Structures are given as C-alpha cells and as structure tokens.
# Entry
Amino acid sequence: MNAHRTGVRILVGSAALALPLSMATLAPAASADDMGKPFGPACASVPKEGAGSFDGMAKDPVATAASHNPDLSTLVTAVKKAGLVDTLNNAKNVTVFAPTNDAFKKIPKADLDKVLNDKAQLTKILTYHVVGEKVMKDKLADGSFKTLEGSKLTTSGSGEAFKVNDSAKIVCGDVPTSNATVHIIDTVLMPPKS
# Structure
C-alpha cells in the first residue's frame, strides 16, 4: 500500500511539473514572434529597403534613424534646433514617441513657430516625448512612464490600437533603432503645466 501511495505521489508530482511545460508549448507562438515587430497602420508606408527601412533604421541611433524617415522631418528639425541630436543618439535603451509631420501640422503655425524659436520650451516638449527605458508593445496596454522632461505620460489600448495620454494614437509602434524603440504618433504631446 505504501509503495502504491509513493508511486501515486511521484506520478502526481511529475504531472504537476509537466503541466506548466505543456501549457507553455500550447501558448500561441505568434505572441512570441510578434514581440518587437513593428505594428500599426502607418508601418505599411515605411520603405522596404534602404536607410529609411526598418532594417536600415535598426542600424542607426534614434535621431539619425528619424532623419531617414520623411514623415519625421519636422521632428528632426525640432531636435536639431533644441540641440538634442547627440543627447538622443548617445542615450541607451530609451523610447521615443515620435510625432509625424502631420502631428506638428495640427499646431497652429504661429504657435509652432514660436515654440521652434524658444529653445527652453522646445527642449521641454521634446524631452517629454522620451522615456528612459525601452517600452515595447507588451507594456503599452496600461502604462505609466517617467519622461526625460520629468513628468509622466500614460499609454493604453490593446491589440494594435494604443494611445498615449488618451490623445495621441500610435500609428507605427515598436520601430527599432540601435539605441531606442520608437513609437510613431499622430499628435504632439504637451507636458503638464508646472
């Protein structure tokens, strides 16, 4: 009887060990494969090859990579005016929420020109778009992250539909560069008033 009980214990123990392993193999492989792959409707417009492609951008630091994307030319101009090119290119493991040219067009021209000519304000706005850690798609569903500007920004959503601060949509996320993850957004984020 004791030998039978011991045998049952061993079988039950083995089953308990095997269950998590079998559950892991049943998990959909797509979730692991999709980790880190760019997602979102605007990703389709990224060139398939060359410096502006996903493979090309992955080889360059973030400010340089952005300069190869024609949809980010206003952002690149702003980064240069603020003197942040080297800061961004030398940062390690950061996330940049990068507004498109169309995002900047939502700001009245007079207001945008004023900000572009106010280095302190421009720096404050741009550094609010940078988080000091890599934030991939799996952290976007309900996230709160401290920015380099010092305030927090939030992310929410699911699937391939995510928002930043409930206002900006991520139109192409998880774009890799050599030192950063980039989420391209459709609205310029404004830091909270201090």
